[in-house]
Amino acid sequence: MSDTLEATKRELEEAGIKYTVESGKRHYKVRFTVRGRGCMVTCSRTSSDHRAALNARLQVRREIRKALSD
């Protein structure tokens, strides 16, 4: 598994959010629900740089924040 997927899963688990992971050819799709709103983030199979895991965590936080503000 990729570092980005691990970081994404860790962030969702810390927030207490259940998720599913779909495996594609080049990316993983992580789907989760926040207050009844479906959310999805993609994670690459191979990380491109040293900040990839941090960026993945940020993407999850943004999706959660967006779902909570709607």
The CATH architecture designation is 2-Layer Sandwich
> Biggest β-sheet, characterized?
3 strands, antiparallel
CATH class: Alpha Beta
- How many β strands by DSSP? 3
User: What is the succession of H and E elements?
Assistant: HEEEH
**Percent of residues in helices:** 40-55%
- What ranges have pLDDT less than 50 throughout 5 or more consecutive residues? none
Task: Count helical runs.
Answer: 2
Order of the strands making up the biggest sheet: 1-2-3
Task: Output the CATH topology.
Answer: Double Stranded RNA Binding Domain
Q: Could you explain how this protein is built, in words?
A:
This protein has helices at about 5-15, 50-70; strands at about 20-25, 25-35, 35-45. The protein is an alpha+beta fold. A 3-stranded antiparallel beta sheet has the order 1-2-3, with helices on one face. A hairpin with a 2-residue loop joins β2 (about 25-35) and β3 (about 35-45). The radius of gyration is 11 Å and the shape is globular. The mean pLDDT is about 95.
Detail the topology: elements first, then pairings:
Elements: H1 3-14, E1 19-23, E2 27-34, E3 37-44, H2 52-69
Antiparallel strand pairs: 1-2, 2-3
Helix pairs in contact: 1-2
Throw out a few tags for this protein.
single chain; alpha+beta; 3 strands; Double Stranded RNA Binding Domain; 2 helices; globular; 30% strand; 3-stranded antiparallel sheet; 70 residues
